[in-house]
Amino acid sequence: MLASPFIAGALQRRTLLGPRGSEVALDGAMVLPVATLSLGAGLIHMAVIPDHFGEDALSGLFFVVAAAFQLAWALAWARRPQRGVAVAGLGVNAAIVAIWLLSRTVGLPLGAEPGVPEPLAAPDFLATIFELGIVCATLGCIVSPLRRALQRASFPVASADLALVMALVVISMVTSYAMAEISTGGGHADANAEVTSPGP
Description:
The protein is mostly helical.
């Protein structure tokens, strides 16, 4: 209660991305949305781990590793959006997307049904979209001309705050939808290896 006037004063001076009346560069405004994309992909992967362990141990282990990396990377990126973290996020998510594309076109060489393409389901497609977003964003942080362009593009903090909140809400809603699909058997999500049709 006693701190309320101080909190109110702080909120009047500063918004989510900086002091009121200032501007924020696009690279700074992207940090939390990109971290949230990784969090969403990690949660989707985590939700399908039991299903994939039911198919074969290698598939289940893949999703454990993918989920653990994406959840940990989300925290690391939110805390320190640096080049090394960006390189790790780019490399791992690009590999996950490549494995997913292979699994949906010609089939993976390993797993429960080697060489058999897996059907597409909404959760795995959405997780892949999240991963592609991470790849594009981290590429922009690694490639010097792109990074400079992101740093030069600046926006009023008030507008950037609104865009940030909307992005976080949309990502959260999409993640919730994907996880609801998984829980109801509407699709075994994943941006990587094996997605099976509903049922045991």
